[in-house]
Amino acid sequence: MEYFLQQVINGLTLGAIYGLIAIGYTMVYGIIGMINFAHGDIFMIGAFISLMGFLLLGLLGVGWLPLTLLIVLIASMMLTAAYGWTVERLAYRPLRGSFRLAPLISAIGMSLFLQNYVQLLQGARAKPLPPVIEGGFELMRRPDGFTATISYLQILIILLTVVLMIAFTFLIQRTSLGRQQRSCEQDKTMAALIGVNVDRTISITFVMGAALAAVAGLVYLMRYGVIDFFEGFLVGIKAFTAAVLGGIGSLPGAMLGGLLIGMIEALWSGYFSVQYKDVAVFGVLVLVLIFRPSGLLGKPEIEKV
Amino acid sequence: MAAVQRPSMDDVLPRVGREAALAGLVTLALTATMVGLHTVPGAQSRLTLEFRFGDVLMAVVLVFFGRMALAFTREGFPAYGLGIGVLIVAGSLLYPGLPTVVEIMGVGAGAIVGINAVWRLARPMRPDRPPPKTSAQLMDDVAAWVQRQSVVIGVVGVAFAIALPFLFPDRSSIDLATLVMTYIMLGWGLNIVVGLAGLLDLGYVAFYAVGAYSYGLLAQYFDFSFWLCLPLAGLLAAFAGLILGFPVLRLRGDYFAIVTLGFGEIIRVVLQNWSSFTGGPDGIASIPRPSFFGIAEFTSAPEADGLPSFHTLFGLEFTPLHRLIFLYYLILILALVVNAVSLRIRRLPLGRSWEALREDDVACQSLGINRRNIKLAAFTISAMFGGFAGSFFATRQGFISPESFTFIESAIVLAIVVLGGMGSQTGVVLAAILIIGMPELFRELEEYRMLIFGAAMVIIMVWRPRGLLAHRVPTVTLHGGRRKGGPSPGQRPEQVPAE
Fold first, then answer.
1. Dihedral angle at the C-alpha atoms of B362, B363, B368, B372, nearest 10 degrees?
2. Is B258 within 8 Å of A305 when comparing Cβ atoms?
3. Rounded Cα–Cα distance for residues A132 and A51 (Å)
4. Where residue A302 falls among pLDDT bands split at 50, 70, 90?
5. Where residue B474 falls among pLDDT bands split at 50, 70, 90?
6. CA distance, residue B273 to nearest chain A CA (Å)
7. At B479, is the pLDDT very low, low, confident or very high (cuts 50, 70, 90)?
8. Are A48 and A231 a contacting pair, CB within 8 Å?
9. How many CB atoms lie within 10 A of CB B322?
10. CB distance A111–B49 less than 8 Å?
11. Of A12, A19, A97, B110, which shows the fewest CB atoms inside 10 Å?
């Protein structure tokens, strides 16, 4: 029971991270119908920028933790968003209206480029970060001494994710920006006719996705304490699996899928084998795509001619 | 049409300035952290930072002026663009103490904006003339020419490939040629799925791995010879293709791509973790080398395992090159078989269905073509060729491990197909020579290889989404692709030929 509880808590935390990344995939897919293969690498860049933020503030002698976190969070979101914007502008916008697989191939090229860009500039070694937030609550203790704990960091991750989700839902549902995005999602030509700047709206979608990926990168770095240039590939694919599982194009679906994938991964590692956890996630991806391509909360897609 | 008025400098300058400033600002945001701060190991195994703000400044300056030159050219002042381009080149060359990489980037960027400006200077936009051909259209002409001359190019290419071991009889050249030829074979194999059937397969390396491990494991456990395993490896890979393909082929294009990627990773993770059977991350070592068609062995001793050695059989002087040359010819033959098969299949109903499927799969289905079966055929045939290439890889290396079958490998093969031009057999050769051969020749660029590679994929997609030498004339057309008696009355002439 204690062991199960611990795995559930770990799964929730991991799932929150996947969910944050999955939103970037799902929004981009919803609006321009492409898989942004480089999104995992945007997440990795977000983690790297967060790492540099912590180191820089450490050198400058900013000691107060909440201030450090806030500065790193905002800086990382803004600077990673710049990457998201640039990637869209350079690699995807010129391909709008090109044949179907062109943006995906371009995205794969972008992903390779970003990985090697970071590797060249920062080195291939994994970069460690000492724990930023330590301590936690003890929830349950088994007679043999095993305790289920929830760390302050895990609480922070879950809280941060919930707050961001609420803010994000509000943004999409209630603001004019969100209405523009939803209109572009439905029909880009019509949206352009009634005065929506479609290119700008798509850019903003990439910027928002990248900012959320930066948050995921920040909390991932704090939780696992290490990041390397290749980390984005696997995490990105798992987050994509989460987006597909929840129903690609659906925002609540992305969050739900993220939580489920996080749970599956944590419980699989806890009870079966750690080595095959990636196979488990890929297996879920294959099964979902074969049996329910529209995902849990997605609408079935009608093939237009 | 109204006379084109030359825009005045006063109008253009603020616009150009704003654009260049914005580009510079974005560059600053991108590079301030990633380039400007360098994480290095410090005391007590903690990281610390080094500052490289000079590099950030150079990047910002370069982007600012580069963008400015492009904007001037676009707005009708190509002379300014050319001037700035020349300044960038001169600055990069003359400024003392620049790192070589920065120098190369500066000269490259300056040259590009300069050429762009010269292009506009040489062929000014005039309303009374048809617009000058764009670079993409020019490349189209090149691709069409290559396709028309494909027989000549093919014969010359094959003759050169056959003569190569005698022209460059040294170990490193033959090794490089064998490597390039392996990738040409993989590229041609993948071209069936990607170029002909239009399915994006991101897990081609899975079949390569199946082929390699088939031979490795059969040789290890049952002592099978290479000549027995080669067809078996192809069969097993084709079977793997059939099993994997069956459930996923009804998925749409990009889902299909991700699922094949997933399969590729699953196979790799299984190979890595099933240590008792596959040797895990250590892989399989000392895989036997092939004999000369079971007649002779490539050994220095005159006789081994009851077989005579190659040099005694043919009365030659012994040299270790014999085996290498034999391996090179082996992969050359395998590759040519793949090429011949795919060229023939293109003329069969199956190949025509693939091309129809690539062009429009809904229309294809409504014509009564069974989409799933022909996709499955493409997938299986291409998997079989991947398996052949894999068993060749195993016997050439003598050692295989899951490390050799990562996603990067799939991406390299895909890049060869995509950059060369989807569906173009010549394009695959060109791209394989560029992508595999070039980095081997320029060793010092090795660490930039994957970076250039990713950038090239993006640039080629933006410039020519169908690939460098792609020229999409269908293999089979009605009336031989040309209507007799010239264009029919209702049609404008340019609509009639080719496509």
1. -30
2. no
3. 11
4. low
5. low
6. 7
7. low
8. no
9. 18
10. no
11. A97
HSE, CB side, 13 Å, CA atoms: give it for residue A150. 15
> pLDDT, tens digit, for every residue of A216-226?
999 999 999 88
Backbone angles phi, psi at A137, to 5 degrees: -95, 145
Whole-prediction pTM value?
A: 0.85
Q: What is the pLDDT of residues A153-173, one digit of tens each?
A: 899 999 999 999 899 889 888
A265-268: Cβ within 8 A, 24+ apart: A265/A11, A265/A14, A265/A238, A266/A7, A266/A8, A266/A10, A266/A11, A266/A14, A267/A7, A267/A8, A267/A11
| Cα–Cα distances in angstroms (integers) from residue A283 to residues A38, A183, A287, B271, in the given order | 22, 34, 6, 16
Closest-CA distance of chain A to residue B168, Å: 34
CA-based nearest residue in chain B for residue A36:
B254
Nearest CA in chain A to B35: A121
Chain A interface, best mutation among B194, B462, B466, B499, by max A CB count within 10 A: B462
Which residue's structure tokens are 């060369």?
A: B420
Q: Which of B22, B33, B260 is the mutation pick for testing A, counting most A CBs within 10 A?
A: B33
AA identity, residue B315: G
The pLDDT value recorded for residue A271 is 85
| Distance between CA atoms of residues A27 and B458, nearest Å | 22
